[in-house]
């Protein structure tokens, strides 16, 4: 996959995970539709029972794509910095996008001090959808998808 194709997927353009899927496709079969997501059994069963849980609501990969409520919960319960959500530099999606480097630095500093289990507990407590990955940088996908900007997260200890 080219860098351009990846960037398009990262932005949610033609991403195969962005909308409800057919009950069956070349790569997966529907197991169950849940209240906010769909569970699919992958046809490639190299890892027996491997499933994919797809959030059907929307695609968010960066802090500037979180709703106001998600951002407030993320700041308070995950980053431990509740005042950050109301900080005038970061109090809107457009401002967070403009200052993405600063936000990612703050996230990296916090995440680098956490184990994977601690990070997942914090994300769950904040109501931020996340999932442990079988493989990949950091072993956890966070925020509803990942608030990182095309770069892997700093792996938790």
Annotate the secondary structure layout.
Layout: H1 3-10, E1 28-33, E2 37-42, E3 51-55, H2 68-78, H3 93-98, H4 100-111, H5 116-126, E4 130-132, E5 140-142
Antiparallel strand pairs: 1-2, 2-3, 4-5
Helix pairs in contact: 2-5
Quick tags:
single chain; 157 residues; alpha+beta; three-stranded antiparallel sheet; two-stranded antiparallel sheet; 5 helices; 31% helix; globular
Strand content: 5-15%
What's the number of helices? 5
**How do the helices and strands follow one another from N- to C-terminus?**
HEEEHHHHEE
| Cα separation of the termini | 29 Å
**What's the overall geometry?**
globular
How much helicity do the residues have?
25-40%
Radius of gyration from the alpha-carbon trace, in angstroms = 16 Å
Strand arrangement within the widest β-sheet reads 1-2-3
Describe the structure.
- This protein is an alpha+beta fold and 157 residues long.
- The chain folds into 2 domains: 3-55, no CATH class; 63-142, no CATH class.
- Helix content is 31%, strand content 15%.
- It has 5 helices and 5 strands, in the order αβββααααββ.
- It has helices spanning 3-10, 68-78, 93-98, 100-111, 116-126, and strands at residues 28-33, 37-42, 51-55, 130-132, 140-142.
- The strands form 2 sheets. The chain has a 3-stranded antiparallel sheet with strand order 1-2-3, with no helix packed on it. It has a two-stranded antiparallel ribbon with strand order 4-5.
- The protein is globular and about 45 Å long.
- It starts with a helix and ends in a 15-residue tail after the last strand.
- Residues 134-157 have low confidence and may be disordered.
């Amino acid at each position: 996959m080219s860098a351009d194709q990846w960037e398009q997927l990262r932005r949610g353009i033609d991403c195969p995970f962005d909308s409800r899927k057919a009950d069956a496709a070349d790569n997966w079969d529907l197991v169950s539709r849940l209240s906010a997501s769909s569970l699919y059994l992958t046809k490639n069963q190299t890892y027996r029972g491997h499933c994919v849980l797809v959030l059907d609501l929307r695609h968010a990969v960066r802090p500037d794509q979180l709703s106001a409520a998600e951002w407030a919960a993320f700041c308070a319960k995950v980053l431990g910095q509740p005042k950050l959500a109301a900080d005038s530099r970061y109090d809107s999606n457009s401002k967070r996008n403009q200052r993405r480097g600063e936000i990612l630095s703050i996230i990296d500093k916090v995440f680098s001090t956490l184990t994977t289990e601690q990070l997942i507990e914090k994300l769950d407590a904040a109501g931020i959808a996340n999932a442990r990955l079988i493989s990949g940088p950091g072993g956890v996908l966070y925020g509803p998808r990942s608030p990182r900007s095309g770069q892997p997260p700093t792996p938790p200890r």
